[in-house]
Design brief:
The complex is a heterodimer of chains A (407) and B (34). With 407 residues, chain A is an all-alpha fold. Chain A is built from 18 helices and no strands. Chain A is globular. Chain A starts with 10 loop residues before the first helix and ends with a helix. Chain B is mainly alpha-helical and 34 residues long. Chain B is built from one helix and no strands. The longest helix of chain B is centred in the middle third of the chain and has 21 residues. The chains are: A mainly alpha (407), B mainly alpha (34).
């Protein structure tokens, strides 16, 4: 895992947020852009990444800008595919994916370019490239683009904001929060709730949670359940708390990041889960992986009259991309495959039920509370156990399954 | 209106107190990249 000693409760981060809020309220036009860029570069250089990481990150953004300009100028599909391929390969090299050790000599591989936030940055810039190709990006300005990429409220762990959303809020055509004292107090409360989630509640669950040091052979079945559930809530509180802080800070700056969580443990099915958990990632994957893949599959001769098969194939592809995006090792590929299987089972079940009984009866059946409870229980357990892949490597997972078979 | 503001100020003070007494100093961010 990429380590960072950065703290969102440090005096440095709180001071930087306060300075940014004042600068963005006082200045306008190009001065406001330059002031925000200075804040973002200071954040990357001094608080998060250090000089080497900051420079390679800025270089990554600049290459993204050059490629986006090229894509916008030449509308051929081949240019988009070529640019995306170059960019994604560079990202894989910078993040040093495990499989690269099979094809590249050790001497050319380096960990030095693998910086915090690179995966989030990749998805933001790929979104800009695809929208530039479709002509739906809106005005691409260098200073706005750079601040969109480096924006310290969405840099480290998302949420993955869309360029258009950022642009509209930055230029005031869309309001981040109402210009009322009450709304600003709400933003401060949101920041503090987020800090309590990350620095108090998540850490309590963290003490009980599954870790890479857990001795799996010494664990009883009950002990395993406790550790898996505790890890689920640790992950949720750590990530959603961080998002609360950034959404609160962003609201005070005037550019609110998108919402990312909506009580995922209350999801009634796996599809509902992904709309409640890391929502900005799900929407990105839906727009740029699932929808194009599904559309392409329906246009082929083999899958054109088999929409369920086409959808299931697109779902598996989407979850493979999601798995590879989450991490560089085999465990994350397994995480993606597992969620792909969950989604395929759910979609097939849903389609078959609807075909047999009709949508109205299925809807009425689903509204019944015992069915809801079963759905929530199944989804919670399935997703909690799938998060095991976040903490264990492939060898540990094999050991765990070996141990369970013996129970 | 006044009570709405007071409620929020109360929440802010409560949350700051919780943080002062219960917050851990070093925290790992799980989603920074695996």
């Amino acid at each position: 895992m990429i380590q960072t000693h950065f703290s969102i409760m440090s005096v440095e981060f709180i001071s930087l947020s306060a300075v940014a809020a004042i600068l963005l309220a006082v200045f306008s036009g190009l001065t406001r852009q330059i002031a925000f860029l200075a804040v973002n570069v200071f954040f990357l250089w001094s608080l998060l990444l250090g000089p080497m990481g900051a420079l390679s990150t800025i270089g990554f953004c600049l290459l993204g800008y050059v490629l986006t300009r090229l894509i916008a100028r030449r509308s051929q599909f081949g240019v988009l595919v070529g640019a995306l391929s170059i960019y994604i390969l560079l990202f894989m090299y910078m993040r040093r994916y495990d499989f690269l050790t099979w094809i590249l000599p050790q001497s050319v591989l380096t960990q030095a370019l693998s910086t915090v936030g690179l995966s989030f940055l990749l998805f933001k810039i790929v979104h800009v490239m695809i929208e530039a190709h479709s002509g739906t990006l809106g005005p691409l300005q260098f200073s706005t683009y750079l601040n969109y990429c480096l924006n310290f409220t969405t840099f480290m762990m998302g949420p993955i904001q869309r360029y258009q959303d950022y642009y509209q809020q930055w230029f005031g055509t869309k309001e981040a929060i109402p210009l009322k004292f009450k709304s600003h107090l709400d933003a401060v409360v949101r920041v503090l709730v987020g800090l309590v989630k990350v620095y108090v509640l998540a850490e309590w669950f963290g003490d009980w949670a599954l870790s890479s040091r857990t001795d799996l052979r010494a664990l009883s079945l009950n002990g395993l359940f406790v550790k898996v559930y505790a890890f689920y809530f640790y992950l949720y509180l750590n990530f959603s708390g961080y998002c609360d802080v950034m959404i609160g800070v962003g609201s005070l700056l005037g550019v609110k990041p998108p919402e990312n969580f909506n009580f995922p443990f209350l999801a009634r099915n796996i599809s509902d889960f992904w709309l409640r958990q890391h929502r900005s990632l799900t929407l990105w994957l839906t727009d740029y992986v699932f929808s194009p893949a599904y559309k392409w599959a329906l246009e082929t001769r083999q899958l054109g009259d088999r929409p369920l098969l086409a959808a299931n194939g697109a779902l598996m592809l989407t979850m493979l991309v999601s798995g590879l995006w989450h991490g560089t090792t085999l465990s994350f590929l397994l995480f993606g495959i597992t969620h792909g299987i969950f989604l395929i089972i759910y979609r097939t079940w849903d389609t078959v039920l609807t075909r047999l009984y009709g949508p109205a009866r299925v809807r009425a059946w689903r509204a019944k509370w015992p069915v809801r409870l079963i759905g929530i229980g199944l989804t919670f357990n399935a997703t909690a156990f799938a998060f095991i892949f976040f903490r264990l490597d492939a060898a540990q997972i094999a050991k765990l399954f070996g141990g369970l078979r013996m129970l | 209106m006044k009570s709405i503001i007071l409620l929020r100020l109360g929440a802010i003070m409560f949350l700051i107190t919780v943080l002062i007494f219960l917050a851990r100093t070093r925290v790992e961010f799980v989603y920074t990249g695996f």
